[in-house]
Design goal:
The chain is an all-alpha fold and about 400 residues long. It is built from 16 helices and no strands.
Length: about 400
Amino acid sequence: MKLKTGFLLSAMMFLQYYIWGAWYVTMGTYMGEVLKSSGVDVGAAYSAGAIATIISPFFVGMIADKFFAAQKIMGVLHLVGAALLFYATKVDNSSFYWVILIYSLLYMPTIALSNSVAFAQMTDPGKQFPWIRVFGTLGWIVAGLIISQLGIEKTAGTFHVAAGVSVALGLLSFILPNTPPKGAGTKTDLGAILGKDAFVMLKEKSYLIFFISAILICIPLSFYYGFANPFLNEIGLENVAGKMTMGQMSEAIFILAIPFLFNKIGVKKMLILGMSAWVLRYICFAYGNLDASWMLYAGIILHGVCYDFFFVTGYMYTEKAAGETIKNAAQGLFTFATYGVGMFIGTWYSGFVVDQNKLGEAQHAWTSIWITPAAIAGAVLIAFILFFKEKKTQSV
């Protein structure tokens, strides 16, 4: 891969996740502070991403892969998305959900499209892609730090920043290396788009237990994405958006340990560590405060263990369990089930729990709120320990 190509792909990844990190983390705080939204309203807005995750494979598989060069359609989606992000700051609570839903339907397919553009240019994806993808994590981190430094995380400014960067990526997309539609002239197979070939994996009890656990663990995950920022702002922590980037920093660090531990201690222990971290994180949030701020920071930093040890390990386990013939379908099914179905359930339920624990105009019983995802994660952990049986051939 040429140096210029690597630079363009790195910039693409940086901006791709900068956009997401700029508005997504603080959206719950913006809705509560500016739109006076309820917990259910906030949960519904976060469910838009889950709905888009469910639908985007159809868009990519049926349209983008067949009729358009990936970089060109990505450019159009980001430019239209920029207008929607700006428009989101001009509407009230009743319309906000619909704007975010439409935007999410445009943004989520660009994740797969950006990956396609990157992979198409690589001679050795296994070695080259991680070095390109890490710029996405850096983009998310830088977005949080800048939002925090500008002091705009409770304002519409976060969406304005995201819109500006979306315009930049939209324009950049048109000079990215050409990635023609790989499915041009082929027949659309809805079953393949849904990953139907991977359903055979669910006949294996061990994978079925893991699959169900992965869906259920997305319920407590939704609490963090939707309400960690409003919680930390409400209790008086300063520069929350910047401090929450410690979660992505820990994610980048802990991911380096995954390949070693995956082979050393095996899948089951890795997943148990990940789920245990979920429980510990929410206990830290439940009982942490400004006087015990180390618990708040611990809850944020544990994001790296929570995400890497469960989801990254989960993707690796899924690929190993699936084998070469159905691994793409299996990864698609896993994403559909977790970030689609699981997150959809979790976003709505988390909003309901937050509303049930509202004490006043802008106060909540946060201890009770955070104990709920801790209990759910604990129940999933116990069930997983009891019923998941790891095959030795899967831990190398």
